[in-house]
Amino acid sequence: MNTTAQATIERGSREDGSGRFARQTQVVAVATFISRLLGVVREQVIAYYFGAGAITDAFVTAFRIPNLLRDFLAEGAFSAAFVPTFSEVLNKEGRPAAMELLRRVLGVFVPGLLLLCVVGIIFTPQIASLLSGGVEETPGKIALLINLARWMFPFLLFIALAAVLMGALNALGRFGVPALAPAGFNIGMIACTVLLSSVVNPPVLALAWGVLAGGLLQWLVQAVSIHRQGFDHRLRLVAGWRDPHVRQIGKLLIPALLGQAAVQINILAITRFAWGLGDGPVAYLNFAFRILFVPLGVFAVAASTVGLARLSQYVAEGNIDRIRQTSAQALQTVLYLVIPTSVAFFLMGESICAALYQRGEFNAEATLNTARALAFYSFGLPAMASIRALAPIFFAHKDTRTPTLCGVASVATNLVGMYTLTPVFGYAGLALSVGIAATVQAAILVIVAARRYGPVGYGRVALHSLLFALISLVSVGVAYLLLKGGFLQFVPLGRVGAVIAAIGIASVLYLGVTWLSGYRNLGSSHRWHVFGRN
Which of 19, 130, 521, 523 is deepest in the core (most CB within 10 A)? Predict the structure, then answer.
């Protein structure tokens, strides 16, 4: 084969891989956007019925208990250990062997989860005491927290099983259904809140039942999808312990659990600090983070989900060039989309919070307080998204130790930040400390990845990000001035329509200016024209 033909094939192969990654990321992003949009509707329903006070604080904190365990055991640490191993078996031994591995993993996982749920329900008062410190400005707040948490503990079983199936489906190249599955969770919560809050006592119990219904729906959607891929749901309850691949997952899981524990310590510390600041701060931070989680979930989780599956495949194949290209591509794609969002949250946060939440029991004061939390969170959004994009290169190499050590550094930074910033900024200081800790963690991951895996291309991504930031300031700034100047008030739907118009204007300006600057292909990690030709 001559040199020209070989180069053409290699170029076509690179473009095929890049294009496939971009398409799969877009599929996940669209599906995740639908789920996150329903998540915003869910938060609007909660805000409308319960506002931002003691009741919402109790629910948010109670839900955080099984949700943190879910993140700890399933979607975070377990996926990092499971997906690379499942991908390796799939590539080397075929689909039947991979499906058998899934059965054996679930055979070990399910009994453990059932036991954990029982233990959690028994010791809920002790967990609640840890989160609240025994402080309650409103009498009965801790008792409500305990009651709600006990109702919601079985959610851990449903959602953890859903997370395992999600990892398997992603490794099989199926991304749309797992990304859309959380929509079932949001639908369950919305339906139960609207239909049951007026007939149960206390009304907030409807939210707890909604969590259970939503978790069940999220699991069922993916159970049907994996069954269509040929999975036999009869579990290997005994054989799983003897499987060498299961033991390998267990070995990878230990350091990943330690790393995920660092993240959960951060969240628990924030909850404890916020709870001690009176009624409202827990809710303000939660409502703000839910807004933040839309772009974080849509853009960063999409790139991370596809990236881990693709990188695991390339590692199994030994394709070093694809590994580097995919990692830089994921990071640049995420920052391109997240940086302007961060600027918008900082400048237009009050208008966004008012448009989303200010109705029913959620008043103007709650809007201002939530917007303040959102503004402080916005500083750390690019770093939080970067962590999601950077971690898969380590997980794909079955390295769960490095992200663990980075997580420990993040915990130390966050604890120092909370103690020093809360006296100055109040509950908003907790949001700012999260961003600072995420920035430290992301910086360490970049340095280690660049040293370990060679010229990944993160330096060029950093240069691009500076331009993203400058263009974002101009684009969002223009939209902000139009919004505050009252030039968008003619738009139908009042403040909601004005905010939508402002976001639309900022988006068009940002996309247009970056396109004119030479940034033509979202799925590419190549240089912009402003940095010279490739």
Answer: 523
Query: pLDDT (tens digit, 9 = 90+) per residue, 502-531?
Result: 999 999 999 999 888 776 555 444 444 444
Helix (H/G/I), strand (E/B), else coil: 267: helix
d(CA 277, CA 269): 13
Question: Is residue 347 domain-resident?
Answer: no
Please count the residues of the chain. Answer: 534
DSSP 91-110: HHH-HHHHHHHHHHHHHHHH
CA distance linking residue 398 with residue 400, whole number of Å: 6
What are the counts of helices (DSSP H) followed by strands (DSSP E) for the chain? 20, 0
**How many distinct structural domains can be found in the chain?**
1
Residue 174 structure tokens = 């199926």
- Rounded Cα–Cα distance for residues 277 and 418 (Å): 13
Residue 50's identity, in one-letter code, is F
CA distances from 280 to 266, 375, 530 (A): 19, 17, 48
DSSP 8-state assignment for residue 455 = -
Is 228 a domain residue? yes
pLDDT in tens, 69-126: 776 665 556 777 787 888 888 888 888 888 888 888 888 888 888 898 999 899 999 9
Give this prediction's pTM.
0.75
What does the block give as tokens for 6? 């070989």
Residue 275 belongs to a domain? no
In a domain, 437, yes or no: no
DSSP string, 221-236: HHHHHHHHTT------
